Input
Amino acid sequence: MTAQVEAPAAIAVALKSPPAGSRRLKDVLFKGVLLTSLAIALGVLLTLLVDTFIEGRPRLNMDLISNMPSARPARAGIQSAIFGSLWVVGLTAAISLPLGVSAALYLEEFAHKNRWYNRVIELNIQNLAGVPSIVYGILGLAFVARGSLGWGFTVRTAALILSMVVLPTVVIASREAIRAVPSSLRQGGLALGATQWQTVYRQVLPAAVPGIATGSILATSRALGESAPLLMVGALTFVTFNPDGFDSPYTVLPLQIFRYISEARSEFKPLAAAAAIVLVLFLVLMNSFAIVVRNRFQRKW
Amino acid sequence: MVNPMQPPMQKEDEMVDRLDGSGTEQQLQDAVTTAAADTKIVVQTRDLAVYYGSFRAVRDVDLDIRRGEITAFIGPSGCGKSTVLRCFNRMNDLIEGCKVEGSVTYHGLDLYARDAEAVEVRRRIGMVFQKANPFPKSIYDNIAFGPRVNGTKKRSDLDEIVERSLRGAALWDEVKDRLKTSGMGLSGGQQQRLCIARAIAVEPEVLLMDEPCSALDPIATSRIEDLMQEIKTQYTIVIVTHNMQQAARVSDRTAFFTTELNTESDRRTGRLIEFGRTTKMFSTPEDERTEQYVTGRFG
Output
């Protein structure tokens, strides 16, 4: 069999001719659809942010964060909500990160994948991540705030409930990160006579830290914006002091915003918008922190 | 805890124990001869077969790995060379559904006994993998990992081990000024030598090498081969290789595996065909299949 050799002139023509009509059209069309989707998503977000910013601008000053909530709009601020959010989210992270990462390590590194109980756990973690957060709120009201624990409407009640909300996400994100660690690292460790725990603790976990940190910080930032479950456990109260401990009553930013918006007097509206901007800033800050952590750990090696 | 891996000295006593009185004179004589020969045998397999689930990957493996020698496993893909190698340090434990039949002994002790600790086995029988897998840590920490997990804490001891291991792997001169830099930054051949250094840092008796040069260029390969010759007096080496010339160049003994179609299913099971001195295996093998393989007529 002899190969057909094309004439150089024919090749030159072929290389310069664009794809035929319908193929080209589909190409352009598809790109267009993708770009439009992106534009819609970004457009909505931008409109919201700009609109909120314009409305809240007159109140975006130091008074906002130095004043406590007040019935008089001119003197009202959001300091107690900011500190409430920091306390609650801080404690939430302190509870959910160690628990979540440990659970993920167990499921990925130690659990026998085909034992029924491990499969039940796995399936349920997926399901728990999809449970509406208000359900956790009701649960918390019944068993944490009242009921057997009886912690009342306090920071620790809120943190425990938010931990339940974010825990599945932390577990799932950490598992992804742990699974992404190449198995050659585990084999290398074990082949040197390290125990499984030594291998996990000294090789797998450090290699997974960037992924775990990113996923966990993003999960925690969800706790910052969460309002529904906290409605059930007393965050909507009028609080004019900062929390001074885990047993302290509290309020959080999203619910403070909700409070101001639902006020009848229109003077409160800019205040709500300004508070919303502060909340967005916090979220951006946390997400940037996640990126910094990821890059720092990756750059190291 | 009783250490399941007794030192080899007890071997002969054990042999005698096993023979107390009941055997004939001839049997005793045979056994003593075997025992004397045994002192050179580090790892021994008899009727070894390995299953992955219900699939029998390899069978009929009878091997004697002798101290201070390089034993090469050759054969076509899928013949079970690596599977057998991984039995020696229980790395197959990590594969779900993997089952080992027959016996694998280390100085006469069953590696798969219920009370044999895989962790201790792996400390004594080290491994270098096909793809160099340095930890994403500094060169120093790569080497120090093994000694550290085995309990060496003192900085000066670790410094010494790191230098000795890197010298042992002929890497010291190339990296001594950058021990604190990442092991991932080395070239492929250097990475593989780093892995060898890492393996010998825990002073294993046996070093298993699973196609250690398959990802390396000829120059890096020859450095590793030279290195193997240098260290074979201290470490018993078993190497799996796809490269027949490599087996011929470096090894003292060669085991040839091939695959056979199962009669009951259409899957192929690996099998040990012939095992002997490398010079003989490559010049006058006893089995026709070995001859065909080493002369390049199949596989």
